[in-house]
Hints:
By secondary structure, this protein is an alpha/beta fold. It has helices at 3-15, 18-50, 55-104, 107-112, 115-157, 159-165, 168-206, 208-213, 217-270, 275-317, 376-383, 406-410, 427-432, 440-450, 453-458, 476-489, 506-520, 555-561, 564-576, and strands at 337-344, 353-360, 365-370, 391-396, 399-400, 413-417, 425-426, 466-467, 494-498, 524-528, 540-545, 548-553.
Amino acid sequence: MKNSNYIKRFIPYITKYKLLIAFSVIFLLVSTISSMLIPFLSKQAIDKFISTKNIQGLIHISILIGIAIGVLFISKIIQIYMTNLAGQRIMKDLRHILFAHMENLAVGFFSREPSGKIITRVTNDVENMNQLLSSGIVALLGDLSILAFSIGFIFYINPRLAAIVILPMPVAILAAILLGEKMERLYEKVRDFVVKMNIRMQETLSGIILIQIFGAEKRESDKFTEIAYGYRKTFHKAQMTSIILRQTINILSYTSIVLVIIFGGLMTIKGIATIGTIVAFLAYTQRLYGPLRDLSDKFSILQNAISSMKKLSSFLDEKEFISDPENPIEKDIKGDVRLNHVYFSYVKNSPTLIDINLEASHGKKIAIVGFTGAGKSTIANLILRFYDPDSGTVEIDGTDIRKFKKRFIRSFMAIVLQNVFIFKGTVKDNITLGNEKITDEEIIRAAKKIGVHDFIMRLPKGYETEIATEGANISQGERQLISFARALVYKPKILLLDEATAAVDTNTEEIIEKGLKKLMEGRTSIVIAHRLSTIKNADMIYVINKGRIAEKGTHKELLKNKKLYYELYTMQFSQIN
Ligand SMILES: Nc1ncnc2c1ncn2[C@@H]1O[C@H](COP(=O)(O)OP(=O)(O)OP(=O)(O)O)[C@@H](O)[C@H]1O
Ligand SMILES: [Mg+2]
């Protein structure tokens, strides 16, 4: 896609505030004109009043200059205020859209994309767009008007001198373009390094415990240092180029000053120019080079913004949605779950699930067992509709779940994972997940039923106790119980447990088992378990092997079969003893 297409896409965000932006441009022009008038008025003061010793006139023109300064001051402040206001509003709109878009993306997207990259979209890239408006578009208009007015005034005052004085200008423009481009390429690289550093940091932070346990600190920091070194080198080069560009333009602007002195001087001596002309020309040539001096900065802001626009565009174009149907069905759900000849693969041509047929009816408890990587959690992912099957159907109460809204079916389900997700907040927040419709009574009733109420009451502030980030200040078992209470307050029809009873001591296991029993009462339960002792009483056990259902039956039947389940069971049994 061409750059202009990316820009087009974001224009509506800007035109939404067109009035605000139009006013800021008007005030920008007012401030430029008033600043441009000052050298011109100074010339009048020198030539008309100082040289003729006219004090009255000098006072009048001084007042005019004072007014110009006042207008300049006020209009500049209004312009900056309005530009910033528009910029902040546009950023807010964009962030809102990006966040909502992100929240709705399919789970599969997040398993591929590093979260550091996604965060950069919402923070940096949006900020770059803001820069585009405040320091890019508006400032560029300001620069152009300064150029136009400066050139206009000098040609108006003395065209012959003006023609001589602007001779170094084309050279300066050429330098700005050539060096500006080189600089931009370097800054592009610098930005890539920043993204790499962010991703590295983010990955290290999320794996810090592992890194420390396995003594991988040096390896990790070496990788980081390498990126930091590349960043430093490129950044230095980019800065040097920028300094060279600035100095080149400075020298050319001094050349213009010298030309004013020499030729302006000669003309004054000959009587075809005045001292006032020289003074005004000195001021205008200074202004003339200002925009070129900053042009490279503006160029960089523009490039930055375009590269951010591309990234934002491709993020917004990310279509990996699990979409809702146009006419979703809504009906009372009993909670019968059925998988009907389901085939599924995460990666093309490498099937994860093959012809899965599975049934869990209301009030029944089914179990899914199998070796690691067999595809058990994948079945749960499909039931929750984090992914859609390649073929076959997942049905609830006999209806394909794609015919419901995702929200609707998920509202009947609760999932409890081994790795319980606990976030920073109070115990209560962790149970309700911030849903204010759930009353305190319901919370306490759920906690009592699960058997975690007494524990919570022993905490310093009971239900209002703050849990540290990721639940660092409570134990595994306690986290587990809190997650049961969380599942219970949502009164799910279908309960999915993924390895819920692994990794706790026997005492806690008993408490958890009791809690679980309460949790499963009167619901469809699908339990994915490694510890076969916990599923002896299941109504049906499915043994998954390499993505297929290898066996199914009750605990007794399967033991009698002496096949895979028997193998799994005796393996665990011998481990325990
Ligand atoms: N997001 C993903 N992208 C690609 N492949 C995946 C993804 N998630 C899982 N897989 C692969 O799919 C297969 C089944 O994974 P799944 O998580 O369902 O196994 P599991 O039976 O739950 O194993 P465990 O008992 O270890 O939890 C594995 O080979 C796994 O590597
Ligand atoms: Mg799993």
